[in-house]
Amino acid sequence: MSKKTVNKSLALGILVLGVFMSALDNGIISAALTTINSSFDVSEVQGSWGITLYTLGMAISTPIIGKMADRYGRKKLFLAEIFLFAIGSLLVALSTNFTLFLAARFVQALGGGGIFIIASSFVLTVFPKEKQGGLLGMLGAVNGIASVVGPNIGSLVLKATNSWHWLFLINLPIAVAILISAYLWVPETKNPTNKKTDYIGTVFLSLGILSFMLAITSLDQTNLMSSLLSLKVLGFLLGGIILFTGLFFIEKGNQVKEIDPILDYRLLTNRNFMLTLFMGLLTGTLIAIFVYIPSFVEHRLGVSANQAGIYMSGIGLASIVGAGSGGRFVDKKGAVQTIQIASFISLVGFGSLAFFATNTTTFLITSTIAGLGFGMLMGAPLSVLASEEAGKEKGSALGTLSVSRQVGLTIAPTLYAALIQNGFNSLMPQLTKALPSEFVTEQLSQVNQHSVESTLLGLTDLAASPEKNQALAIFRETAGAAYQRMFLFSAIASGIIFFLSFVLKNQKTHRKLEN
């Protein structure tokens, strides 16, 4: 192996470590949300802003950092991002009140937002095309591994230290090691230009993303349609539309000016690129399934709450394998064919979850199939498609793709929660119809019906009786129908991606014939 190859591999290893550190953070914090909320004496709704602000910060920073990395140098921006992430982590750990905690989380997000994009752009710039798919798949697998092990690591650190602050302090020695290694061994790559920076376009892009994300995070999962039509949500949506329309005309005007656009007008009018972004959004909705897997196995399959997380293993590990194998498929079969294969597997998996996951065995089989399919989608193929259309603007294109995926990931939990909650609305009428009236009057009137979880706990706490067993059986059947809607939505999303992949293939074929 040549010295040049060794250096490239070493540099990539350093970038991968940075990706793992930033991806691990979201998983780690999920293990300590209740503890953090208690330490600041805030409600669950208020505490959720620790996640929401991190999401907003990443969504805003990702496309901008991708563009800046192309222009000013990927090594420089990687160092800056790691440094900012470390400073944000330190500030989070030292926060004395909830306001400072939220501000520090936003700083941390600005640092973490561009790390994956810089690493992906480095792969697409430095490595030959025949290796890019496999390496991008590996980056996707690293993201998946971090998501799976993050909560476990968070729980271990919390148990060992009895302090949530250490969940963020452990980032500091890792960040220092990455900074030193990257400074010494990561080569600089960039696409220099003498054109002026597109400051106005950057402002419009940032505010547009912020406006849309605020609209999404303002949706009420218990009353989705009503909140969607509220003045607050409609105002943010209208603001986002106006800002993105303004961005479109700004970038159109920049074509004849000596300005380097934040998002190339050629990409904004490129049908293949826009289709890729839409498929990215749909893959984001598939990732959100992870949030509801433990609840499904508890409510539908009767697994205890403390054992429910174990049943994440099939879909989690399969998604990691899928991300890696998807990259290899891209190298051998091309991005479009990989999307066709992956989306079909995902469609079969989620469709099977909807109709056949009636016990733990069938659940593990069907969820593993689903994980394999969407893992393949999450890895290399969409990144390769976006970069092929982007030319030299790889960082900007990958950043925009990442934002579209984040939008899907942000929308989906609210939509899924609404679908599930609506499915459970029929529970009490069914119980009342099927069970003796005296049991309903004496026992079910004591059950807290304000949430699905409290209803299950209330039924479980009832004294043993045939009526209790029948009530629990009705609950499980209702849960199956409620969660079925979520899985069907994911199957439909996979089917749309499958259809669009053929549209994309036809467009690429026509383009080749025209050329």
UniProtKB/TrEMBL annotation:
<keyword id="KW-0812">Transmembrane</keyword>
<feature type="transmembrane region" description="Helical">
    <location>
        <begin position="271"/>
        <end position="293"/>
    </location>
</feature>
<dbReference type="GO" id="GO:0022857">
    <property type="term" value="F:transmembrane transporter activity"/>
</dbReference>
<feature type="transmembrane region" description="Helical">
    <location>
        <begin position="198"/>
        <end position="217"/>
    </location>
</feature>
<feature type="transmembrane region" description="Helical">
    <location>
        <begin position="407"/>
        <end position="424"/>
    </location>
</feature>
<feature type="transmembrane region" description="Helical">
    <location>
        <begin position="339"/>
        <end position="357"/>
    </location>
</feature>
<protein>
    <submittedName>
        <fullName>MFS transporter</fullName>
    </submittedName>
</protein>
<feature type="transmembrane region" description="Helical">
    <location>
        <begin position="77"/>
        <end position="100"/>
    </location>
</feature>
<feature type="transmembrane region" description="Helical">
    <location>
        <begin position="47"/>
        <end position="65"/>
    </location>
</feature>
<feature type="transmembrane region" description="Helical">
    <location>
        <begin position="363"/>
        <end position="386"/>
    </location>
</feature>
<keyword id="KW-0813">Transport</keyword>
<feature type="transmembrane region" description="Helical">
    <location>
        <begin position="164"/>
        <end position="186"/>
    </location>
</feature>
<feature type="transmembrane region" description="Helical">
    <location>
        <begin position="229"/>
        <end position="250"/>
    </location>
</feature>
<dbReference type="InterPro" id="IPR036259">
    <property type="entry name" value="MFS_trans_sf"/>
</dbReference>
<dbReference type="InterPro" id="IPR020846">
    <property type="entry name" value="MFS_dom"/>
</dbReference>
<dbReference type="Pfam" id="PF07690">
    <property type="entry name" value="MFS_1"/>
</dbReference>
<feature type="transmembrane region" description="Helical">
    <location>
        <begin position="134"/>
        <end position="158"/>
    </location>
</feature>
<feature type="transmembrane region" description="Helical">
    <location>
        <begin position="106"/>
        <end position="127"/>
    </location>
</feature>
<feature type="domain" description="Major facilitator superfamily (MFS) profile">
    <location>
        <begin position="11"/>
        <end position="509"/>
    </location>
</feature>
<dbReference type="InterPro" id="IPR011701">
    <property type="entry name" value="MFS"/>
</dbReference>
<dbReference type="InterPro" id="IPR005829">
    <property type="entry name" value="Sugar_transporter_CS"/>
</dbReference>
<dbReference type="GO" id="GO:0005886">
    <property type="term" value="C:plasma membrane"/>
</dbReference>
<feature type="transmembrane region" description="Helical">
    <location>
        <begin position="486"/>
        <end position="504"/>
    </location>
</feature>
<keyword id="KW-0472">Membrane</keyword>
<feature type="transmembrane region" description="Helical">
    <location>
        <begin position="308"/>
        <end position="327"/>
    </location>
</feature>
<keyword id="KW-1133">Transmembrane helix</keyword>
